[in-house]
Amino acid sequence: QVQLVESGGGLVQAGGSLRLSCAASGLTFSSYTAGWYRQAPGKQRELAARIASGVGTVYADSVKGRFTISRDNAKKTVALQMNSLKPEDTAVYYCVVGGYWGQGTQVTVSS
After folding, report:
1. Burial of residue 49 (number of CB atoms within 10 Å: 0-12, 13-18, 19+)
2. Which residue of 57, 100, 102, 109 pairs with 6 in a disulfide if CB–CB is 3.0 to 4.6 A?
């Protein structure tokens, strides 16, 4: 079955960096768009960034210039490098590939 396993969340001070990683199995990873969504407390889930099966990327306006999404099709992984983190980036971050969702990883940014 399809599995998406996220890692790399945690607690960081404002201005710091974190790198999220998602390892996929059970699907032809290279064929699908991969992305990271996030949900902050009391807010709707929103797209943070996604990357096409090629190299096209899309970022939320709120993370442009700070976050970078990348993928390694050979390793079936997708990563989200998050720099210059802000308290408003605090959320549960979910990896999504081909319509499948990971379990989520908590990112907390303290002020």
Report:
1. buried
2. 102
